[in-house]
Structure of RDD family protein:
Amino acid sequence: MSDARTAFPTVAGLGRRIIALFVDWAIATAISAGFLGHDPWATLGVFALMTWVMLSTLGATIGHVAAGLAVRRLDGALPGPLRALIRTVLLCLVIPAVVWGADGRGLHDMAAGTVVTRVR
């Protein structure tokens, strides 16, 4: 099996991924504050639901689209609901997202069999 950098020569850099995360978190915070108050757990729940639904259906969150990124399986297909769920749960635990492999993918992407790629 080839690694993610071989399969996807345009693997996203850390800067774009951080921008995407900040955009998505800001949107989740605004939704949470507007409807649920300033509860950090509500914000995390909104972030998780938004991330899972968008990755399952479109392969990208609003932040990913803004930063020119997409999440794909290693074969290039959309992640689908199960892989998106695994990735989202691990991302929300934070630690897997800050542990990186030699191929530049976070532990959450390795566990889900996904990769964040540049699309523009």
